[in-house]
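All the exercises in this workshop are built on plain-text protein records. A record pairs a protein's sequence with a compact description of its fold. The structure tokens are whole numbers drawn from a learned vocabulary of backbone shapes. Once this layout is familiar, the rest of the handout is easier to follow. An example says more than a description, so a record of this kind follows.
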Amino acid sequence: MSDRIAILGGSGLSRLDALEVERQQIVVTPYGEPSAPLTFGTFDRLPIVFLPRHGAAHTIPPHLVNYRANLWALHSVGVRRIVSVASVGGITLGPETLCVPDQIIDYTWGREHTYVESGVAPVKHVDFTEPYCRTLREELLEAGRRAGIEVVDGGTYGATQGPRLESAAEIERMKRDGCDLVGMTGMPEAALARELDLCFAHLTLVVNWAAGIGGEVISMEEIKQVLDRSIESVRRIIARL
């Protein structure tokens, strides 16, 4: 099973239309239920495991996703590489931009963010200098080049709590902090993957200017239109992996 890559689907990618499904598997974890059963199949001949992080019907908000169960379930079936697809707001990058970030800042709170528990095992400190797997990042960028799709190499993902969008002042602070993107699911996914020694990378799609950047009120209808126009590029990059 270790030759399979996992795709964690976010908003706009709750399913892969071209996925040839082999089977679905319900995985029981020590941390509760994952967002959905794991779907095993092939996508343009690429063997994958697919998991929609917000649930099959997109009913789980970002602050209530069971990130520990999701990552543990994928790890338990032998997955070693995970591409996490995420729709994000743009701080320095505009709508319809695809980006493979190389850094992350965590602004979330109250989430179960580690597998380290008191009295269960020795404390584990993981190196998070480079939060994303360099090899998988390079493979995503190369897949974009082969697909003829422009993908920005590098950027800092600011992970916020949600489910509300941010205020203009919060985005201004994040800009001063060096964030290029803002999303609600980036953490603790990346850190949990590192604790499990998984090769993890984000493929992000900018669907709107963040609050106060574009000068207009953020419209959910406009975000949906951007998703509809751009999600096919995400699928093409995955196919080129």
The longest strand covers residues 199-209. The two ends are 17 Å apart (CA to CA).
